[in-house]
Design a protein that fits this description.
heterodimer; A: alpha/beta; six-stranded mixed beta sheet; 39% helix; B: alpha+beta; four-stranded antiparallel beta sheet; 13 helices; 8 strands
């Protein structure tokens, strides 16, 4: 693991040193040449990206990768995955080891501006929370003065945690691990009192623990964590494709298009918004360097945003997370996509 | 003379001259290395700029903003990445120094035990060495961390000694000394006692050389070391107030804490390295011919004296060079600490700082230079020591 991350960093340095100068459109050309999208995902997080019993990757983050492949090639299976730890992820993207990063990554100004990344949108509005053992009798994060806290290295979580405790005049001892699995193991063994991470991750970690009922998520949400896919800076063509893949899924949900009715609607629709999105009217796919039926393929093979959410983290999954902030804007949430026209 | 000059062929004369050719090839080699280096550097710079990745070392002055579980110097979240670097470096050095000291002590005991005339001790040492040097160090670290220290009771059910020392799965808590009015007189008293012992030892040695008379140097020194500071404490009062750890809501707070991550890594590395040092020591002792032992006992030296005064000084010449390599290995293996969340150089600087700043090339370059510097320092120190103890040939 250590060796792997060192290698990732070294290969990044080598790639930056030896690699030819990038030009706009380079990623799209390379992806088309390879015939698949190389997608950086998390190293095991239920609901977002994890391998199921058959070894198939599943989750919201994985579905975004599959949607991009569906839009490009008309085949959602043309994706290769690179599971990355939080520490490895940015170097892997910077060095060109992956074409896109879809790995519950928080969009922040420094990552956007100083690390040579561009975030294409928000797949999941999250916030940081705390997972504690019920035995401690803690009801609120404000009671955590003096606690030992397990965190994942190289995350925004590390920074928010210290801000929160400083702001409330409390002390804590951080124990920092490379993977979320290690932090969870240490919470179980009692090395730390609290595990802190994005709330979605806490729910996902909890179902992996031996005795999930023994642990509760505290009510406080201490930060804004807009999670989204990222691509390398300076390649607008590829950036637009990844960005509009998510927008197509959001627009589809808003317009009532889903995986079972999409082909029917593409043929029979009278609604001009639907017609433009599904390629029945205009050349909007061509503007994006995509086939005419790009959105149809995404929705048919992967589903609209609501279906993806429900299947992976929502009502139809083990996590049973409410839509909350992730509901469409017209249902009181924050998810909103610009129109296709 | 004239004929030889004429005999030199005019065409390609420079190339056929071996000396000129050697120069030419060396110039080409240097130019190629410099050229490749410049190309890599330039291309890296261009690519970093094109991709909008910040470069340079300015980030070292920025506030770090995250907490660290163990810091030997004061640290708060508003301190800079530069300070985080020093904390990581000190934590790495702490592991290396503790590991080297423990591994050396254990290794020498093992090496001598391997040659013991007692069958049981000999076999035990052999089993130890064959077991521990054949298991990868990372696994041994995991073993101590997850199998030995993690199952210890939680803070509420700590094993405690006199309600002052506590052992639990958060580490070892012990009372910490706080300065009291008697601290300075006490420290001065210790310094005076040490000075007195040194002077006495030198004088006793001189006396022995001059007259052959032996004084009980050890007992007298011990008495001086105990009596002088002891009297000072009685006169001016206690040198320290003790901060006793006590159980709070989550943890035992106050006092000094040795975190289990540190204990695991130091134990695992010293036990692992000691197995190699044991073999080195055995080889060194065996390299001293048996005649030396016989000569020593015919002079009437005891077994302990023979080992201390005759065998070890000669064995050290064989032991020191491979021992240096073992020390270097231990210092470099300390980077495995990152696997269990000990905030060493790799975990803290090449891990967290790299990720928070995204400046992979700079942080990796700094980290690599640090390990290079540590290794070269150990090497120089050991070479100097080796030279000092080497046989002086006249």
């Amino acid at each position: 693991m250590k060796i792997k991350s060192t290698l990732a960093v070294l290969s990044a340095a080598v790639a930056l040193g030896v690699g030819a100068n990038a030009h706009a459109g380079a990623t799209l050309d390379a992806v088309k040449n390879n015939g698949f999208v190389q997608c950086g995902i998390s190293d095991g997080l239920p609901g977002f990206s994890y391998a199921d019993a058959k070894g198939q990757y599943k989750g919201i983050d994985v579905d975004i990768c599959r949607a991009v492949a569906a839009a490009l090639f008309g085949d959602a299976s043309k994706v290769k995955y690179s599971p990355l730890t939080a520490k490895e992820r940015f170097t892997a993207l910077q060095s060109g080891e992956v074409d896109m990063l879809s790995r519950n990554t928080t969009w922040t100004s420094s990552r956007d501006a100083a690390m040579g990344l561009n975030f294409t949108g928000v797949t999941y509005y999250d916030g940081q929370g705390f997972l504690v053992n019920k035995e401690l009798g803690v009801k609120s994060a404000k009671e955590l003065d003096g606690a030992t806290v397990c965190i994942q290295a190289g995350t925004t979580t590390e920074l928010n945690l210290s801000d929160y405790f400083r702001a409330n005049g409390m002390n804590y001892t951080p124990i920092t691990y490379d993977t979320s699995d290690e932090s969870a193991k240490s919470l179980e063994s009692g090395r730390c009192d609290v595990l802190t991470s994005d709330q979605s991750q806490l729910y996902a970690q909890r179902i992996k623990l031996a005795n999930p009922e023994q642990y509760i998520v505290l009510p406080e949400v201490i930060s804004k964590e807009p999670l989204g896919p990222a691509v390398r800076q300076g390649d607008e063509e590829w950036f637009d494709i990844v960005r509009w893949t998510l927008f197509a899924m959001l627009n589809a949900e808003e317009l009532g298009i889903n995986s079972s009715n999409v082909e029917e609607m593409a043929k029979t629709t009278k609604n001009p918004d639907v017609a433009r999105l599904l390629g029945a009217e205009g050349e909007y796919g061509k503007d994006l360097n995509l086939p005419k039926d790009w959105a149809v393929q995404i929705i048919k093979q992967v589903g609209n945003y609501g279906e993806v959410f429900a299947r992976n983290v929502g009502a139809d999954s083990d996590l049973k997370i409410e839509r909350g902030l992730n509901a469409l804007w017209k249902d009181g949430g924050l998810q909103y996509a610009p129109p296709v026209r | 003379m004239r004929t030889t000059l004429d005999a030199t062929p005019a065409r390609g004369s420079l190339l056929s001259d071996p000396r000129a050719r050697a120069w030419l090839f060396q110039i080409i080699a240097v130019a190629a290395v410099v050229g490749i280096g410049w190309y890599l550097f330039h291309n890296t710079q261009t690519n970093l700029a094109n991709r909008g990745i910040t470069s340079g070392f300015g980030f070292l002055d920025n506030a770090a903003g995250f907490g660290i579980s163990q810091h030997l110097i004061d640290y708060s979240e508003s301190d800079s990445y530069g300070r985080v670097f020093w904390i990581g470096l000190l934590n790495t050095l702490l592991v290396s120094v503790l590991g080297i000291v423990l591994a050396t002590i254990l290794g020498f005991i093992l090496g001598v035990a391997r040659l013991s005339s007692n069958w049981l001790i000999r076999q035990l040492a052999t089993i130890y060495i064959e077991t521990f040097r054949n298991i990868p160090p990372l696994l041994q670290i995991f073993f101590f961390y997850f199998a030995v220290l993690a199952p210890l009771p939680g803070p509420r059910d700590s094993l405690s000694l006199a309600d002052m020392f506590f052992v639990n799965n958060r580490g070892l808590q012990m009372p910490a000394p706080l300065a009291a009015p008697g601290m300075w007189p006490f420290l001065v008293a210790i310094a005076v006692a040490v000075l007195a012992v040194v002077i006495f030892a030198v004088w006793a040695k001189g006396l022995r050389h001059a007259t052959g008379k032996r004084l009980p140097v050890f007992w007298v020194s011990l008495a001086i070391l105990l009596v002088v500071p002891g009297l000072t404490v009685m006169i001016v009062g206690a040198p320290f107030d003790w901060e006793i750890p006590e159980l709070r809501r989550f943890n035992i707070r106050g006092g000094w804490v040795v975190i289990p991550e540190l204990v695991s890594i130091v134990l695992a590395l010293s036990i692992y390295t000691a197995a190699f040092i044991g073999e080195t020591v055995r080889a060194g002792i065996q390299s001293v011919s048996h005649g030396q032992t016989e000569a020593a006992s015919s002079l009437g030296l005891s077994g302990g004296q023979t080992l201390r005064l005759v065998i070890i000084p000669q064995a050290l010449r064989v032991i020191i060079p491979p021992l240096t390599s073992q020390y270097l290995n231990l210092a470099k293996n300390s980077s495995l600490a990152a696997a269990i969340g000990y905030p060493d150089m790799v975990s803290l600087f090449a891990g967290t700082v790299l990720n928070q700043t995204g400046q992979a090339i700079e942080t990796m370059a700094i980290t690599m230079s640090v390990y290079l510097a540590i290794s070269i320092s150990i090497s120089l120190l050991m070479n100097w020591y080796n030279k000092r103890i080497a046989l002086i040939e006249r």
